Amino acid sequence: MSTTSPVLLLFILMLLGGCAREEARPEARTASPAPARIVFFGDSITEAGVQPSGYVTLVADSLKRSYPDRAVEVIGAGISGNKVPDLQARLERDVLAHEPTHVVIYIGINDVWHFYEFDHVTGTERDAFEQGLRDLVAAMQEAGAEVLLCTPSVIGEDPGSDTPVNQRLIEYAEISRAVANTSGAHLCDLRAAFEQHLQTHNPDKAYEGILTSDGVHLNEAGNRFVARFMVDHLSPLLTP
What we know:
single chain; 9 helices; 5 strands
């Protein structure tokens, strides 16, 4: 009768022991995506955006559907009448205190509009507007947040208008683009999106009624339009 050599027996025992350890080893678990906290920082457009049909709420609902396994918190931080200097003054309290992972800056309408439509206030000069945006972006980035900088949308729904207020808004939109391009912020070019949409959907060059209720503030269609556009720009920043 043949006998198993001690060396072969030892090898078989080691092999069986290794298989047992493999069977007992728990399956590797996929790490959950890190939570995201997104602050929307702006003026009355953003303040109204937290209403049930507002763009901030629509963005939050869309992201929660798109990322069911990820904690996504959306915070609205809009105040009516705000301009860039106002955002600078409340940056710590209304944005950085929340420790956001992402910040969407949607500002610039009042910085221009207040030069033309109101007696008791004034707009923001070009240099102060640009430097203010740069300071905001830098502070947010230093705090570890990804920044999505929006161009100001419209004052009147005829983007080709030669009125002084519209021509100045075009200049301020270009300033926002330049800041995004040189600061590392992600550009959300709402102005260009509005221009393209209104060229097709506002052939009569109406001042209001397509995407806004008064030439500035978003109506129901405008909130849906802005929400879709922002989700398209936020999604790549949230995808690992």
